[in-house]
């Protein structure tokens, strides 16, 4: 390899490493402008990870949408929202934010102050108002099977909540095959009890249009709670008969249709 080619290779490596940090701002907008569609930022909730969005991601990518499935830390609401917000900081073009479950509380706060966030899509998700907590909202109406199924395990500095594997399918994903939910139960990511008790700030849904996907058989966040939040936000609602809390896994086409509807209405 010649000295010139070594220098060129080093330059390309530096450019690749600094691009996510916004240090090559002249390059980023140009590449982003090549896409006519907004970046869809997907935020998972508690007891799950970004892989729960896989079917949704595949469909969005086939439709030409850039997608980022954020790794929600699940530690505390303020910190989780700040992390998701930092991802939005790196996206120069328009964004549609999509939250599942506790991820809805995260996007409600993370989208605040970002003019490029054009729509919020709540998928079986919390959409808290200022001062509300996810745990408070979950109990606003009866129907959640989560409280008696929680297994709390302490960790240094706090406590994590898991779903009892024996109850996982009934509570979280009753419309998925048992063979799949056994794996999900074993690999579930816990959520900090402190995080679930975190108070929301001023909600982005007061200034950003919202869409809601409400599964009729949600045993984590009762549908009545979701309807209350959606109507309060003035959101566009789609209800999914027979779907569980993980509607993005069991009915990904419905979720994608709401995201596309949000894009169509706000472009």
TrEMBL record:
Segments forming domain AB hydrolase-1: 40-257
Keywords, alphabetical: Signal
Record keyword Signal present: yes
One GO MF term attached to the UniProt entry: catalytic activity
Signal peptide start-end: 1-25
Keyword Lyase: no
One Pfam family in the UniProt entry: Abhydrolase_6
Protein name: Pimeloyl-ACP methyl ester carboxylesterase
Organismal lineage: Bacteria, Bacillati, Actinomycetota, Actinomycetes, Streptosporangiales
